[in-house]
Amino acid sequence: MSLRVGLITKGTRGDVQPLLALAQELRLRGHQVAICCPKCVVSLVEERGIAAFGMSFDPKSAIQSSEMQEAIASGDGGLCIKAFNTSQEHQILASGVNPAQEVYDFVRTFRADALVGHPSFVPLIAVAEAFSLPLVNALFMPFLPSAVAYPAFFARNQLEKLGLQGKPLEAHKQLWDNYITPEEFAQLNHLRTGWGLKAHKDVAETQAVYQCAHEANCWSPHLLPEPSDLQVEFPFARQTGYLFADSPEYQPSPELLAFLAHPSKPIYVGFGSLCVGDPREATEKVLRALKASNLRCIMAGGWVGLSPSQLDAEKTIDFHLLKDFASTNVFSLEACPHDWLLPRCCGAVHHGGAGTVAAAARAGIPQAILAVAWDQPWWAEYLEDRLAVGINLRQMISKVDERLLATAFQRLAEEDQLTTAAADLGKLIREERPGHESLADFVLESVKLPHPWPTKEQPTPLNLLPSLWDRASQENLRRALGGA
């Protein structure tokens, strides 16, 4: 039976790209697919021949907002998250358009039979319930709670500061309480009642619904194995593997091929869909570190606009030295498919987004992380401490010392231990079954399985279990009473 599957995200390219891989796989199997995403990434979807519906929320404007840039300049990841959310709220107030209603309208217009989405879009469960549709949440970093593994939003120093070391389940609860705030909960209930649904009685009920939904952990088990309690506590969760939307049709320019023909592989430097402060200052810092380490570089401009063209004869103190160095040692481009480019580099320096982490890991090259916020500091720490395939620079580009950056460049290019560990991990990931195939299997399977709300195939909903921390509390109480 052919299905109409709607894929939904309000994120940037890093969130859309994996969904493209799933969309292409579902189309190969004879299903119809459309993606609802921000307008700034609609062209990325349409280039693959997939129907796209653009929502008005613009993450690029949010990242480029004055609030966000001030937060980045401060070097405080927590302020970055707050600034991004503030900018998002300002957009909604200014436009009078709620992205949740746009997604609701997309699902109705597209006449979807099933939904796949990113849980950063909190109202998605309400949309699925309003249309009695099966839903799979596609996760790109650890998010489901666990009693044995920490969430991907707390680096070690944050856990220590909050007194959460040795308390993974408490860390998860704090994350989820921040994920669905009282304000978010009130907005969600407003949407629910407007769509003819019963309001949730409290945040705990909303959290319970999310945790009983179908969840896909979309990363390699060789990079990050699933927690030992995942299948026990969440029977409708699966670890599918990475989703890579490759670009076999990509044709590099003769100039890029000529640059890559040099005997020494370059370092890749790019910050993707992030704006990391003043582009001139960021470019100067990267160029000085490259010059100090005598290395070549592919510099991807991305949304930050990183490029030697940012050098300013009046403001850049060493303008002529950097310009001359860049003219022969740096190749500047806006963007390039990671599946094609990264295997041709000796290492990658980036912001630590889950998508770039995945691409560099599959390419088998070591990576240095200049994290900004969200899950990025966690990935930086994990790659360095647990896998020994990365360098955690512990600051964003706006704050990192040029000498530390130069040392990181040299280690990426010359440290055999890093290179070997990264190459071994890349080989394992490349030998896995493609994640988009496993996720497509799970999506089609989920249509026939029960959900926390009635669906066409399963009109009787699941019995709602409490959130994992509430289950643990109830179990502890039961044991205490039983032992009394």
From TrEMBL:
It comes from the Eukaryota. Keywords: Transferase. Residues 6-148 form the Glycosyltransferase family 28 N-terminal domain. SUPFAM superfamilies: UDP-Glycosyltransferase/glycogen phosphorylase (SSF53756). It holds the Pfam family EryCIII-like_C. InterPro entries: EryCIII-like_C, Glycosyltransferase_28, GlycoTrans_28_N, UDP_glucos_trans. Residues 329-425 form the Erythromycin biosynthesis protein CIII-like C-terminal domain. This is Uncharacterized protein. It comes from Durusdinium trenchii.
